[in-house]
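Subject: Protein record for review, amino acid sequence with backbone structure tokens
How to read it: Take the token row as a discrete description of the fold.
Enclosed: The protein record, placed directly beneath this head.
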Amino acid sequence: MFLNRASLQKVSTHFIAAMGLDRVFDRFIESEVERFCREALRSYKREVQHERGRLLMANPMDYKAVRALDRELEDICARLHTLEAARGKH
């Protein structure tokens, strides 16, 4: 008997709950969400840096747009720092 992914996930979820490991499962889900958020922020940071570089090379340079991207980069870095700090507390 072969189980598809959905069936396997359902069976494993029931098994984990039956064994009283639902907290472990919740922690795993939380860590996966945190990992996804970190990866999304890193990817967004790369895109913002690329766009900032493009604007810096443009002629004439749009200072307001560059400053807006600088603020966005600061916000992204702060969010990443917060995620890393929260990760260290666990």
Q: What stands out?
A: DSSP finds three helices and no strands in the chain. The two ends are 40 Å apart (CA to CA).
